[in-house]
Amino acid sequence: MRLSVVTPEGAKVETQVQSVTIPGAVGELGILPGHRPLITSLSIGKLSYVAGGKTVFLATNDGFMEVHEDVVTVVTQTAEYPDEIDVVRCKAALDRAERELKEIDASVRPDAWDKMRRRRARAQNRIRVSELHATPAALRQVRDRAE
Amino acid sequence: MANLKAIRTRISTVKNTQQITKAMKMVAAARLRKAQQAIEKLRPYAYRTRDIISQLAARADVSDHPLLEQRTPRRVELLIFTSDRGLCGGFNANINRTAERYMAANEAGHEQIAMDVVGRKGWEYFKRRDVTINTYFEDVLQNVTHERASEIAEHAVVRFKEHDLDAIYMVYNQFKSAITQEVVVEQLLPIVPAEFDEGTYRPDFIYEPSQREILDAVLPGHLTVQTFRILLESVASEMGARMSAMDSATKNAGELIDRLTLSYNRARQAAITTELIEIISGAEAL
């Protein structure tokens, strides 16, 4: 089965895999070879795939996925490996989003409120993926850079 | 006999111009590299999105989403992408000509063909002509951002929904390589559904959640991405066109300098010869 993850910054993943787990809009979804054709939208979350016996994780953003003839195509705005995530920056972004959310009146500006909530969700997601799956070396590097 | 001083001045003028065109070529080449990288990175994403959306549109009911509604195109709009600056060969002329030809060919069939313009050159060209310019998007090209792309796309969406227009086409230069661009006319709205040949296998997709919800989630972003892609295509093409235009200008200037130098030397020799003859004949007369 083939997996390709495409983002505006180019193709992120282009590889042969045994299975894929994606954060679908209606819940987590496991895809194995021979899956029926499927189109689904994605929610902010964690994608993982198994290639050569190893499990690889990615923090993903809004987007959608198509499964067709054993080709899984994930189209998303961002996709990052745990080691690429800058936790320090994400935490700052989370704090900012929390503060903004307190100031925005949801009944007056529903769009802005919604946008900020998504921003908060993205930051939370990145932090979670990084804390669960980043290698200690990468985490140390990020912390060192921040200091 | 040509005036020696005049030729000398001419040579130095042409040399100055050559220096300028050379510098412009270098600048365009540097900016081209960046623009090319940007568009090549975005393309897979934009094309995949477009493919999946047109697949969805082909299976969805028109009533599923307002942006899928295929109406008889009575009011049509052309969104043209030109540049802010000139000196880039046929870049703008090709766009303007294609737009004009399109309007001439379709005038009879439609109630109105209006225009939206990106780029100062297109605006300057069409404002003096008998064309309805609906919107001129200013200062987009200096710094192409997602926000501006979204603004342009949103403008089209709102007017499509309000039946201000029934179809909108984009006319732009597609980036092929540093030296070639191709003018493309592409429909932005309504969404073009994928076409299936009769009898070919149509995979029976599962949709999660419903088609309608997927369309709702991805359509607005899709139009922004396509507009953004076309802005990047246009900028990369512009840089490519300017680079090759300035390259040939530099070459032409070089040839001109060679020719002028030749006639300068000829004139100088002729002057020396004349002078010698004058001296000799003067000496003989004594």
Brief description of this entry?
With 147 residues, chain A is of the alpha+beta class.
Q: Report, as a whole number of angstroms, the end-to-end distance of chain B.
A: 28 Å
- Biggest interface and its residues per chain? A-B, 25 and 24 residues
The top-level CATH class of the largest domain in chain A is Mainly Beta
Task: Provide the CATH top-level class of chain B.
Answer: Alpha Beta
DSSP E strands of chain B, number: 6
Structure description:
The complex is a heterodimer of chains A (147) and B (286). Chain A has 147 residues and is α+β, with helices and mostly antiparallel strands. Chain A has helices spanning 87-103, 110-133, 136-146; strands at residues 2-7, 10-16, 19-24, 27-31, 38-42, 45-51, 54-60, 63-68, 71-76, 79-80. Chain A has two domains: 2-80, F0F1 ATP synthase delta/epsilon subunit, N-terminal (ATP Synthase, domain 1), CATH 2.60.15.10; 82-146. Chain A contains three helices and ten strands, in the order ββββββββββααα. Chain A has a five-stranded mixed beta sheet with strand order 2-1-9-8-5, with no helix packed on it. In chain A, α1 runs antiparallel to α2. Chain B is an alpha/beta fold. Chain B is 60% helix and 15% strand. Chain B has helices at residues 4-59, 91-106, 120-127, 146-161, 211-285, and strands at 75-81, 112-118, 132-137, 167-177, 180-189, 206-208. In chain B, α1 (4-59) runs antiparallel to α5. The interface between A and B is medium-sized, with 25 and 24 residues.
